[in-house]
Amino acid sequence: MTRPGATDDAATAAGADSPWVLRDYALIADGERGALIDPRGGIAWLCAPAWHDGAVFNGLVGGPGRFRVRPADRWNVWGGYYEDGTLIRVSRWVTADGIISCREALAAPAETGSVVLLRQIRAVRGAALVDMDLDVRAEYGQRSMTQVRQKGGTWRARSGSLFVRLSGAGNARPVQDGGLHAQVHLPEGGTHDLVLEISTKPLSARLDPRSLWRATEQWWKRAVPDCTDTAAPRDARMAYAVLNGLTSAAGGMVAAATTSLPERAESGRDYDYRYAWIRDQCYAGIAVAAHGPHPLLERAVGFVADRILEDGTALRPAYTVDGGPLPPERGLRFVGYPGGSDLRGNHAGRQFQLDVFGEALQLFAAAARHGVLDARAAEAATVAAQAVADRWMRPDAGLWELEDRWWTHSRLCCVVGLRDLSRELRTPASAGWSRLADRVLDATRSRCLRPDGHWQRAGNDTGPDAALLLPLARGAVPRTDPSLAVTRSQVVHRLAEDGYVYRFRHGDKPLGEAEGAFLLCGFTMALAAHAEGLHTEAVRWFDRTRSACGPAGLFAEEYDVAQRQLRGNLPQGFVHALLLECSARFGRAAEAPPSIGW
């Protein structure tokens, strides 16, 4: 069936490069925005100046705009790597005559109104001839480059309301579509710096690439802990780097850097994830706390506390990274990533999701354990606990953002949060929180615990749900309670195949046909096995799930097991958070066997 606007979409896509499978993209990010880099050396997606603003490079969804650095010799093989513990990416091409690399990063520490994108070309072996193309198209491709001019080897332009400056391409020439093209010649061992600035304000003093690189390297070194005491140190550092790169200075962490990447081709399940989900933020903060009181914990606590104190029981599931409301869903009139759509905005901001209060309570308790829960966050914890008391009987949309029902997972999350908080935050209200947890658990047990001992999805749904594993692993019931083992066994036998875990069953469809394996659930399965004391099995689930990434080490929300492909928006923050949590908790377990691999 042809979508409305498909003719316009096809015309838009005609001038765009074909996209790559998701596993082949890499991410650079500075907390305020992120860019996806394709194997051709193109910036396939970048929004400016902030995550939720209009994209200036739209190729990922078939729109205009490009900033491409690639060998002039198209007969090449691509590769690349991240500098350990950073989102500084080194793209690499082996050509017929040599090896060329391009070191790439968004300069940090970042300013909210200005993007600074660094690219350093190097002739690793042999002389290098490299093509550079730039065409900034602000507001999702609607604004072409205007007022394009050069002075002293630096190019300036406007794109809508944005100011653009490119340094290091003095020999570039304008091309017919309004962009710029240049060629860079380098002898063996030579380097060449390009600096692209995109800002909401006029650009003043020219920036020094060496100083920018040095500041960016130092920023990453300060931000990412060593993680050598975890089960998978290199992967843990990478996960922390991704979480750091997705988190704004205002504290909000976007769920992912992209919009509209399909979870299943032509299924209609493609969404805009460039916003801060409270739940995801809590997952990230709890994961960081499992390793130590690192800065991301305090930023998560601050952001969640501010939202709770501002909105109280009307807390939204998601916000922009600066705390604003989510815009409504609208189309972009691009062809979209193949199999997906072209949406911006998200309707989830209008839902009631009870579990977010439980996750927030767990986050605040984790902060209190590390001594970093300030008075404002403690006040927010009290507000969140009262919200649970007021609303726990009300149906909600739940973790999976479905129809309002009496979801078991939501109640068990609140039980964990209330108990954690009552232990860590000693106030006159603490005993009341513990009693409330008992009441919620007793009512949920009465409605949602099956006669054979496993927890069902909802009060009116007897099926299994992998979401239940996380609150059970975190202590909703004692670890000796049979319902933990029985529920996990149900998920293993009914929702797992080939070492990967799916969320729930879609009618009679076979697993893998309706959607991909849900990587969050693979890591929660590992945590649940660990909670049972099955450490070897826990590591097997952990290692199997963390294999489901692309060459860059990034995880999407889902994994197509049959095709070995990533599905959904990229990179998915909460998947990286649960990898970090598993690695931290398994590394602390003295009896756990060493993990296989990195």
Description:
This protein is an alpha+beta fold. The protein has helices at about 5-15, 140, 210-225, 235-245, 280-290, 295-310, 355-370, 375-390, 410-425, 430-450, 470-475, 480-495, 520-530, 535-545, 575-590, and strands at about 25-30, 35, 45, 55, 65-70, 75-80, 90-95, 100-105, 115-125, 130-135, 145-150, 155-160, 160-165, 175, 180-185, 190-200, 275, 320, 330, 345, 495, 500, 515-520, 560, 565. It has 15 helices and 25 strands. The protein is globular, with a radius of gyration of 24 Å. Helix content is about 35%, strand content about 20%. Residues about 1-15 and about 590-598 have low confidence and may be disordered. Strand 12 (about 155-160) and strand 13 (about 160-165) form a beta hairpin. The strands form 7 sheets. An 8-stranded antiparallel sheet has the order 6-7-8-9-16-13-12-11, covered by helices on one side. Strands 1-2-3-4 form a 4-stranded antiparallel sheet. A 4-stranded antiparallel sheet has the order 5-10-15-14, with no helix packed on it. The two termini are about 45 Å apart.
